[in-house]
From TrEMBL:
This is Zinc-binding dehydrogenase. Residues 1-124 form the Alcohol dehydrogenase-like C-terminal domain. It holds the Pfam family ADH_zinc_N. GO terms for molecular function: oxidoreductase activity, acting on the CH-CH group of donors, NAD or NADP as acceptor.
Amino acid sequence: MAKLSGARAVGIAGGEDKCRYVVETLGFDACIDYKAADWYQDLQRATPDGVDGCFENVGGVVLDATLARMNPFGRIALCGMIAGYNGEPAPLKHPALIVTQRLCVQGFIVSEHLDVWPQALRELGEWVAAQRLHYRESIAEGLDSAVDAFIGLFKGRNFGKQLVKLV
Ligand SMILES: NC(=O)c1ccc[n+]([C@@H]2O[C@H](COP(=O)([O-])OP(=O)(O)OC[C@H]3O[C@@H](n4cnc5c(N)ncnc54)[C@H](OP(=O)(O)O)[C@@H]3O)[C@@H](O)[C@H]2O)c1
């Protein structure tokens, strides 16, 4: 969606396969494998002009690295912080960057925006139909597989949106 709006889009994902998919299929300009050694240098190389906007799903080291690349007056939408869902603290190393870079950081809860769901579904549906927006699903079979599928989210076992097929 960032690309469709004319931005340069850089993804961050775990592993070469996911990063290749992000660039070759999803159409991002670059994707950084946060599990690789020296990945912050890869992020620097992929964002030579810094970062203006971040849609954050992860927190932890990924958010820390992105914070360090933010341009003045950049915006961060905090959608998820999965790196901290196991209960361990995920402290930020450089929170002062929010001040010095005058960043706007705002939490985002999708269910608070039900008023624009019909419009969003229409626009997203049109993009999917026109093959301008791509998605992928990992489907686990049966309720018995739900716990395993859920735990898999924390290990990156899913490759796309994790669903559980009940019938
Ligand atoms: N705010 C809202 O309204 C809202 C609604 C739904 C979901 N969410 C949040 O959005 C985020 C994504 O949810 P989703 O259901 O679409 O899951 P998802 O992105 O399909 O799956 C989770 C992915 O997170 C990555 N991950 C797991 N542990 C990680 C860690 N410690 N550090 C870095 N990456 C890690 C793994 O990918 P890799 O293989 O790349 O590591 C995993 O495949 C979650 O944080 C979720 O809580 C927010």
